[in-house]
Amino acid sequence: xxxxxxxxxxxxxxxxxxxxxxxxxxxxxxxxxxxxxxxxxxxxxxxxxxxxxxxxxxxxxxxxxxxxxxxxxxxxxxxxxxxxxxxxxxxxxxxxxxxxxxxxxxxxxxxxxxxxxxxxxxxxx
Length: 125
Prior knowledge:
Layout: H1 3-14, E1 26-32, E2 37-41, H2 54-64, E3 70-77, H3 86-95, E4 100-104, E5 110-114, H4 115-118
Parallel strand pairs: 3-4
Antiparallel strand pairs: 1-2, 1-3, 4-5
């Protein structure tokens, strides 16, 4: 799957986000080495700490289905290039520190980096 296809899936997922409080829908699409793709959206809650980001939703869906070998994740939101929050960076780092990250927007523009570059001194045991 090429970058544009993955970004398109993330953008399509973004339309299913539940973001009544922030009004900031985010979509993610996680590509596994075997070609499987898992999408995620941000799901907010009135108690903000109970909300989940799109990146973690996609990752947790993949893990719950037995996938552990991740290649790339695309994340989209409106406006600028969508960057994973600190919590998502830490969780992604634990499962795939060299994961390629495409940070995009609905117009198709994106920036490429890795989880390791986004969180160079991640916590680990």
